[in-house]
Specification:
Layout (H helix, E strand, L loop, with lengths): L10 H10 L14 E5 L4 H4 L7 E5 H8 L5 H8 L8 E4 L8 E4 L2 E4 L5 E7 L2 E8 L5 E8 L6 E5 L2 E4 L6 E4 L5 E7 L2 E11 L1 H24 L12 H13 L7 E11 L7 E4 L10 E3 L3 E4 L10
Parallel strand pairs: 4-14, 5-16, 6-17
Antiparallel strand pairs: 1-2, 3-10, 4-5, 6-7, 7-8, 8-9, 9-10, 11-12, 12-13, 13-14, 14-15
Helix pairs in contact: 5-6
The structure holds zinc ion (ZN).
Zinc ion binds next to strand 2 and helix 3.
Length: 306
């Protein structure tokens, strides 16, 4: 029989375990979305197999306690069947920086020294924004409406709040660098990544996004759409690079980046805005730098974009 590796845990088992606890650590009062998968019946060292009936999704802190035998099998079984999954998920993401560059569907937003910057705006108000906290650092907020228009997942100044009953899946990695929310199977509501990128990495990212934007424009032109000068200077890349270098570089020469590379933003009475890895019918390679408002989704007020 092939050896089973601890790390090789099937995606469907992980999802089953996440769903069971309502996407947050099931210990009373915890509800952190940064989940790990604990083998307790039998323990990994004894069974060396991934049996979801003897496993539970819990946060790193509670995992360490469980590994040291603080909880009995019965304690953990009770949590698996518990009512905690009805409680909302609550998690703090440690993404506070003096300045951020935001990439949203292959477009870029940045504004130096502002108290608040709206990244995505709709006629209903800000969908994604950065706000400065009391310490003078920027934190992320978003309000993501579900397709039914009734419920939402909210991040308020880096604190994520979600209702497990309304979500198909939610994954936050334990390092708090990625967050992915699904409304339904194959329908990503939002995928966010946080990274500190080097100048060179940003340059590559801009190059790739420009190429992708050009491809989309060319397709549009070939279909008899509008004409765009694809041979002009790359004003977007040079503006973004210059802005990020001047305003964002940290002590290690890296640029803090919030990257929204997938999204399905539901807007009342309109088709949703869909972003799939840098491509969206509404947003094409451009930048809104030093504007109060980044990009407008549905006729909401948007800023200047280049
Ligand atoms: Zn916990």
């Amino acid at each position: 029989m092939a050896k089973v590796h601890r790390a090789h845990l099937r995606a469907d088992i992980k999802r089953q375990l996440r769903r069971e606890v309502g996407y947050g650590c099931p210990f009373p009062g915890c509800r952190k979305p940064f989940l790990t998968y604990h083998h307790f019946d039998p323990p990994w060292g004894v069974g060396r197999r991934h049996d979801p009936n003897g496993m539970i999704a819990i946060c790193l802190e509670h995992h360490a306690q469980a590994d040291r035998g603080v909880y009995s099998i019965q304690d953990l079984r009770a949590l698996k069947q518990g009512i905690h999954s009805a409680d909302g998920v609550k998690g703090h993401f440690p993404w506070t920086k003096r300045e951020f560059l935001v990439r949203v569907g292959g477009c870029y937003v940045g504004r130096s020294g502002a108290q608040a910057t709206i990244v995505l705006n709709s006629s209903q108000g800000a969908v994604v924004q950065l706000r400065r906290n009391q310490e003078g650092l920027l934190a992320l907020s978003f309000c993501l409406a579900a397709p039914d228009g009734e419920s939402e997942v909210v991040m308020e100044d880096n604190v994520l709040l979600g209702d497990p009953a309304e979500i198909h899946d939610l994954v936050a990695d334990t390092g708090a660098t990625q967050l992915r929310i699904w409304w339904a199977k194959k329908s990503v509501g939002l995928q966010l990544k946080f990274a500190r990128v080097s100048h060179q990495e940003l340059e590559l990212m801009l190059e790739r996004d420009r190429a992708r934007g050009m491809k989309a424009w060319t397709k549009c032109r070939n279909a008899g759409g509008f004409e765009i000068d694809c041979d002009g200077d790359d004003v977007v890349s040079s503006t973004v690079l210059a802005w990020a270098t001047k305003n964002c570089l940290d002590d290690e020469g890296r640029i803090p980046l919030v990257d929204i590379d997938q999204a399905r933003v539901c807007l009342p009475g309109r088709p949703p805005l869909v972003i799939r890895d840098g491509v969206s019918p509404v947003l094409r390679f451009s930048a809104a730098i030093e504007c109060g408002v980044g990009f407008a989704l549905d006729g909401g007020v948007g800023g200047f974009s280049i």
